[in-house]
Amino acid sequence: MGWVVPAVAVVSTVIQAVQTKKAGNAAAKAGLQEQEARNAAGRLFDWNAGVAELQARDAEARGVIDEARFRQQISKFIGTQRTVQAASGTDVNYGSNVDVQADTAYLGELDALTIRTNAAREAWGYRVEGVDMKARAEISRKSGVQAAEAGRAQRSAANWSIAGNILGTGSSLLAAKYGFGKQQKTFTPTRNNLRLVAPW
User: Fold this and answer.
1) Model confidence over 76-99: pLDDT tens digits?
2) Could you tell me where the beta strands, DSSP code E, fall in the chain?
3) Which of 97, 75, 71, 163 is nearest to 171 (CA)?
4) 71 Cβ neighbours under 8 A, 6+ residues apart
5) Residues 133, 136, 141, CA angle at the centre, nearest 5°?
6) What b/e string do you get for 23-62 counting C-beta neighbours within 10 Å, with b at 16 or more?
7) SS3 content of the chain, % helix, strand, coil (to 5)
8) Is 164 left (phi over 0), alpha (psi -120 to 50) or beta?
9) DSSP states of 127-158
10) Mean pLDDT of the residues in the chain
């Protein structure tokens, strides 16, 4: 029956080691899965950043087209003004007729520049969004690396725990078998075991 206690201790240590190993492996696997998920999120952020850049370029291109179209409309409007002025029998290149045309051209130029500015602002907004998406992609990837490292650290801690348990069980069994760690009897002087010796 002397082998029962050591056998139970060994079986218990083995079961505990297997459970700890499984938990460590599960933590490492979960860390890798988290990293894969964060990398996927990073790719999505990168894609969104690319879309934002395309939208910025589109806004700029539309701005150029809208500005040119508006300038053409102003030119046509000034031409219509000159036609009306000429039909009334006045000189279109003199006096108030020239002032009216100049005012139309000036206001039209302001509106054209407003179209250009609005397109630039829209493009800038998309580019800011793209920078934000790229930053999110980088943060997502880094947090994925951290998740994987945390999983590996948990697995490593589990392995060290297994080693500690095995060593602890082994030392306990050795102590039980060979008596290591038992308190040794110490000599305590009493009247019965003391022999008085005269100092001379």
Assistant:
1) 999 999 999 999 988 888 899 999
2) none
3) 163
4) 108, 112
5) 130
6) ebeebbeebeebbeebbebbeebbebbeebbebbeebbee
7) 85, 0, 15
8) alpha
9) HHHHHHHHHHHHHHHHHHHHHHHHHHHHHHHH
10) 85
Backbone angles phi, psi at 157, to 5 degrees: -65, -40
For a pLDDT cut of 90, what percent of the chain falls above it? 50
Tell me the pTM: 0.65
Question: What are 36's two structure tokens?
Answer: 């894969």
Q: Which amino acid is at 145?
A: V
Q: Are 30 and 150 in contact (CB under 8 A)?
A: no
At which residue do the structure tokens 């054209």 appear?
A: 112
Rounded Cα gap, residues 125 and 53, in angstroms: 10
Amino acid letter at 54?
Answer: L
Q: Return phi, psi of residue 182, to 5°.
A: -75, 150
166 Cα distance to chain centroid: 39
Name which of 117, 104, 60, 58 is nearest 78 in CA terms: 104
CA distance 15 to 22: 11
